[in-house]
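#help-structures
NK: newbie question, is this the right format to request a structure? protein is Glutamate--tRNA ligase
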Amino acid sequence: MSKPVVTRFAPSPTGFLHIGGGRTALFNWLYARHTGGKMLLRIEDTDRERSTEAAIDAIIDGLKWLGLDWEGETVFQFARAPRHREVVEEMLAAGKAYRCYCTPDELKEMREKAMAEGRAPRYDGTWRDRDPAEAPAGVKPAIRIRAPLEGETVIEDRVQGRVVIPNKDLDDLVLLRSDGNPTYMLSVVVDDHDMGVTHIIRGDDHLTNAARQMIIYQAMGWEVPVMAHIPLIHGPDGAKLSKRHGALGVDAYRAMGYLPEAMRNYLVRLGWAHGDDEIMSTDEMIAWFDIDDVGRSASRFDFAKLENLNGHYMRATPDDRLYELFVETLPHLPGGAAMKADLDQAKAAQLRMALPGLKERAKTLVELKDGAAFLFANRPLALDEKAGTILDADARALLKRLHAILVETEWTIEATEAAVKAFAEAEGLKLGKVAQPLRAALTGRSTSPGIFDVLMVLGREESLGRIADQAA
């Protein structure tokens, strides 16, 4: 009987959770769910100079926002350094590793000589078979693995296929630095083994590391996990994804007003597909996802496609859920903190009432916030450029006549609609010619939800006050 699948997401906390990392986490999470296994989280904080608490918080916050959870406690790699050193001692005792007394200057000279001779700059095995008694005084050794010199290392990768690396191209990599600190290569292997990881799903920029890591597994007699190296994400122009393309932190996408459900749906389609299905629920992703179906070629990030997909999710999300997401996200949106501060009980009721009309016109939560701004505006309203153009002298005179009628009208959607239509007919105008200046007066903008919905959401007193402010 095969072992239950255990995947892991193992980011380095040297910055935010970038979008490629978000997709790697999603693929690990989906594969674990698909197979009835579990995903673990490990923070690879061995780079003490660049690892920060803020970055750790941002990574965990980003994963939670994407709706990706993990089993058990978060593992911190640096805290496991004594265990990493213990494994090196085992390798030394078994003759699988050795002490290297080369100085930094000697290593530099070795690299320069290799490059001058047209060879790859690799360690030449100077201390591989030398007697440690020859060690120079006062030099602290690094510990290197005794890598095989002949044959080849083969990776049967679930995405990349069969990858063969001649062992002559792999040098005796450092396991422990001369200061006693474990290297990343060693730490990753020990942690994956101790955590029971069965499947390593990560970016194909780690493919060259995989062969070196396999040598450590073999030296320890440990089972090598199944490997799947997924292609990187490129920009629309085919170049490696950069900040100008959208290589931003997951928190930046939240600030741009994207929904977590839409981000999951968009990210899963970057490099993986299920027929022609574009829109899929999380349950469908879990049911359909298999790492074997991930393509080998790089996928392209497309903001327009993401925005259109997000627009679909905005319209499809039930109003209660969308309201909850909107209020949660407000502090992260530009200018949203002020709106959140003004969201008292009355404004919340208005916003809930306006939401069905607002979400039809918004592709992002930022657009939803901008669309809802009229609810929070103070009188007299500031008019945007288009609204200012609409409200010329004739339009203001028209509003004055309409105001007199609406004062006498029962405040229901049916009664106000009937009154405005009758007014337009009496004025010999099409409804739009009345609705346009009315919208500008009520919202300060030329676009809004349906005008009669706006009248209901604002209520009689506020609506009549705003119309009167602009009437002449």
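mod (FA): yep, format's fine, and the tokens are attached above. The two ends are 83 Å apart (CA to CA).
NK: thank you!
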